[in-house]
From TrEMBL:
Residues 277-334 form the Anaphase-promoting complex subunit 4-like WD40 domain. It comes from Bradyrhizobium jicamae. Pfam families: ANAPC4_WD40, WD40. It comes from the Bacteria. The keyword Phosphoprotein does not apply. Signal peptide: none annotated. Transmembrane segments: none annotated. This is Anaphase-promoting complex subunit 4-like WD40 domain-containing protein.
Length: 338
């Protein structure tokens, strides 16, 4: 058992010899934990479940490509090009939550702590409450991303030229946050005060929800494909550069007028970020296969995986913060216990 105390500078520069190599048999597009079971999701049909002993089992989820996924640590919900929304539990059991009437691709999914699930097909967003009531909303253009607010049943629907905030259980007209361009991934801050999107261009855009004031977060050399909130929502870590970019959200103005922290520079681009659920540390994966653990306070680094392979494409902690799992585009995978 490796102890990583964020209050002390670690004497160990590398934990590579403590990583358990995993034969998952598929390039991972994402990894999520269900309890202490790591679930590596591939681009096509299957997921690989890995228990803490390193035993691997494979389960078929979709009859084709897996296009999106979300997890709440109890289940993983995926959308596929077979038009189905499927839930997977830690036992490897699957259930079909919905099938699109027109068999359209399911492009985005999101989960709410009360059991509600949202998904989208083309321009239409759907929400099914924890009680099974279903509502839908047609966005102005194809849905680029979905997110539930941390409080109340409110859904952010990212699309071309902005984001729509929709209350499925209210008759009120949805609120529209405008900003030119194509908005893809979307996330609420954990305190429900800010909304941030990753754009098709190499930039983020944000709004302070109290007054819809804009927050421009630009300067990236590449598109931001991975975002993760640090514990307590103090910062938003992002990929897209050759350092980890962390935007500050500790004040009422968020990152407005502030420079981001830039940690762990490498001669490779950051491809995945995953903040620890309880401590001020994070994991970062790079385009050259490197995986680092980084202390947010001072940028101290510990090497988890050396470079020299395909990009890191999957990275996640379990909810307790005692396990870290990673996967790469060429099918390599590993797990580290703390």
């Amino acid at each position: 058992m490796t102890q990583f105390d964020p209050g002390e500078r670690p004497s160990i520069a590398s934990l590579t010899d403590q990583v358990r190599r995993l034969a998952i048999g598929v390039p991972a597009t994402a990894v999520h934990f269900l309890g202490d079971t790591a679930v590596f999701v591939g681009a096509e049909e299957n997921a690989a479940l890995v228990n803490q002993a390193g035993e691997v089992s494979t389960v078929a989820i979709h009859g084709g490509a897996i296009l999106c996924m979300a997890s709440d640590s109890k289940r993983i919900v995926t959308g596929g090009d077979d038009g189905k929304v499927v839930a997977l539990n830690a036992k490897g059991e699957t259930s079909v939550l919905a099938t699109d009437a027109k068999r359209r691709w399911i492009d985005n999914v999101a989960l709410h702590p009360d059991g509600a699930v949202a998904w989208s097909a083309a321009k239409t967003a759907f929400v099914r409450s924890g009680k099974g009531e279903e509502k839908n909303f047609d966005a102005p253009s194809t849905v680029g991303g979905l997110a539930f607010a941390p409080k109340g049943l409110r859904v952010a629907i990212a699309h071309y030229n902005g984001v729509t905030l929709w209350f499925p259980n209210m008759a009120a007209k949805p609120e529209f946050l405008e900003w030119a361009g194509s908005h893809l991934a979307v996330t609420f801050s954990p305190d429900n005060k800010f909304l941030v999107t990753a754009m098709h261009e190499p930039a983020l855009h944000g709004w302070r929800l109290a007054d819809n004031r804009h927050m421009r977060m630009s300067g990236y050399p590449g598109r931001v494909r991975s975002m993760s909130w640090s514990t307590g929502g103090k910062g938003l870590a992002t990929s897209g550069a050759d350092t980890v970019i962390i935007w500050p959200f500790t004040s009422k103005d968020g990152p407005m007028g502030k420079e981001p922290a830039m940690l762990a520079p490498l001669q490779a681009r950051v491809s995945m970020v995953a903040c620890h659920p309880k401590q001020d540390i994070m994991a970062a994966g790079y385009s050259d296969g490197t995986v680092l653990i980084i202390r947010l306070e001072d940028g101290a680094e510990i090497l988890v995986r050396r470079n020299g392979s395909a990009a890191v494409s999957a990275l996640a902690w379990n909810a307790k913060g005692t396990l870290l799992a990673f996967g790469t585009e060429d099918g390599d995978a590993g797990m580290l216990e703390f």
